[in-house]
Amino acid sequence: MKESSSVIDRRFSVAPMLDWTDRHCRYFLRLLSKQTLLYTEMVTTGALIHGKGDYLAFNEEEHPVALQLGGSDPADMARCAVMAQERGYDEVNINVGCPSDRVKNGSFGACLMANPETVAACINEMRKVVDIPVTVKCRIGIDDMDEYADFARFVEVVAEGGCEVFIVHARKAWLQGLSPKENREIPPLNYPRVYQLKQAHPDLHVSLNGGVKTLAQAQSHLQQIDGVMMGREVYANPYLLADVDSTIFNCSNPALTRDDVVAKMQEYINRQSETGFRPWHAARHMLGLFQGQAGGKIWRRYLSQNGTGKNPDPDLLSNALDAVRQAQQQVVAFNRE
């Protein structure tokens, strides 16, 4: 049996990102931080129950890792929660924040903020059959339901259903008129509303998501709430995770160097045996590893040019690193002249 949600240290997590946070990405991110809580891409109940693929595959090294689930039928959600627990996930998270048409048409995602009773019913049924935490990721509001009172009612109803952990994207979502990308950028951030929720419900764990770009910002938010979730910034500049364990979790374990990460990821690529796997499937998540470093453009160019096509370089990462180091040495030699 899994232990209670208090065992998972939720001070810092990486957001579920569709088409990005697959198992190869999560393995890579885990090399950079041992403590960060990682989330899968959203998986729908329909895919898990009726799909033919293995949507729950993950590497044991990824722990702690949470499955984000999309759905609204309590029985189906409970069935999928059992599947997640049996496979070894540390948490199941319900998507109540994604505003895309695809999830809206499936009656899940951000549109569920208008139906907190449905979310509460899902939570209740899921908690009956699993021991791992069942959590919710939501927005601060949708459409014209964007006052604090609307947000507070949603949380209170869902909490009554048994949810103790809320990850809140501090923007409202417009279900009509804005694309998912625009919904991540156009609605203004409202961090005080998330702070207010925590002040009103000190018994709940409240994490904040949206617009956080530095660990200094994360530390500032942690003065007001329990946890911070970062998404796009981590994907674009993943090596910032190398400072998370020491800065956020106060751990003394030394971070891997970029060279060490490349070596371990090359080993990871070499041992993949599934049909259809290509080095690019893992390397695409590493384009930002040398962000802000000399040779960063060379790294990205080498991966892009040699990781795709009919005959990808099997030693893609090692050779890309060699190209970066050669370029850096040339810069040093030039500066000495």
UniProtKB/TrEMBL annotation:
<feature type="site" description="Interacts with tRNA; defines subfamily-specific binding signature">
    <location>
        <position position="181"/>
    </location>
</feature>
<comment type="similarity">
    <text>Belongs to the Dus family. DusA subfamily.</text>
</comment>
<feature type="binding site">
    <location>
        <position position="137"/>
    </location>
    <ligand>
        <name>FMN</name>
    </ligand>
</feature>
<protein>
    <recommendedName>
        <fullName>tRNA-dihydrouridine(20/20a) synthase</fullName>
        <ecNumber>1.3.1.91</ecNumber>
    </recommendedName>
</protein>
<feature type="active site" description="Proton donor">
    <location>
        <position position="98"/>
    </location>
</feature>
<comment type="similarity">
    <text>Belongs to the dus family.</text>
</comment>
<feature type="binding site">
    <location>
        <begin position="209"/>
        <end position="211"/>
    </location>
    <ligand>
        <name>FMN</name>
    </ligand>
</feature>
<keyword id="KW-0560">Oxidoreductase</keyword>
<feature type="domain" description="DUS-like FMN-binding">
    <location>
        <begin position="14"/>
        <end position="317"/>
    </location>
</feature>
<dbReference type="Pfam" id="PF01207">
    <property type="entry name" value="Dus"/>
</dbReference>
<keyword id="KW-0285">Flavoprotein</keyword>
<feature type="site" description="Interacts with tRNA; defines subfamily-specific binding signature">
    <location>
        <position position="300"/>
    </location>
</feature>
<feature type="binding site">
    <location>
        <position position="68"/>
    </location>
    <ligand>
        <name>FMN</name>
    </ligand>
</feature>
<comment type="function">
    <text>Catalyzes the synthesis of 5,6-dihydrouridine (D), a modified base found in the D-loop of most tRNAs, via the reduction of the C5-C6 double bond in target uridines. Specifically modifies U20 and U20a in tRNAs.</text>
</comment>
<dbReference type="GO" id="GO:0102264">
    <property type="term" value="F:tRNA-dihydrouridine20 synthase activity"/>
</dbReference>
<dbReference type="InterPro" id="IPR001269">
    <property type="entry name" value="DUS_fam"/>
</dbReference>
<feature type="binding site">
    <location>
        <position position="169"/>
    </location>
    <ligand>
        <name>FMN</name>
    </ligand>
</feature>
<keyword id="KW-0819">tRNA processing</keyword>
<dbReference type="InterPro" id="IPR013785">
    <property type="entry name" value="Aldolase_TIM"/>
</dbReference>
<dbReference type="InterPro" id="IPR004653">
    <property type="entry name" value="DusA"/>
</dbReference>
<keyword id="KW-0288">FMN</keyword>
<keyword id="KW-0820">tRNA-binding</keyword>
<feature type="binding site">
    <location>
        <begin position="16"/>
        <end position="18"/>
    </location>
    <ligand>
        <name>FMN</name>
    </ligand>
</feature>
<keyword id="KW-0694">RNA-binding</keyword>
<feature type="site" description="Interacts with tRNA">
    <location>
        <position position="184"/>
    </location>
</feature>
<feature type="site" description="Interacts with tRNA">
    <location>
        <position position="95"/>
    </location>
</feature>
<feature type="binding site">
    <location>
        <begin position="231"/>
        <end position="232"/>
    </location>
    <ligand>
        <name>FMN</name>
    </ligand>
</feature>
<dbReference type="InterPro" id="IPR018517">
    <property type="entry name" value="tRNA_hU_synthase_CS"/>
</dbReference>
<dbReference type="InterPro" id="IPR035587">
    <property type="entry name" value="DUS-like_FMN-bd"/>
</dbReference>
<keyword id="KW-0521">NADP</keyword>
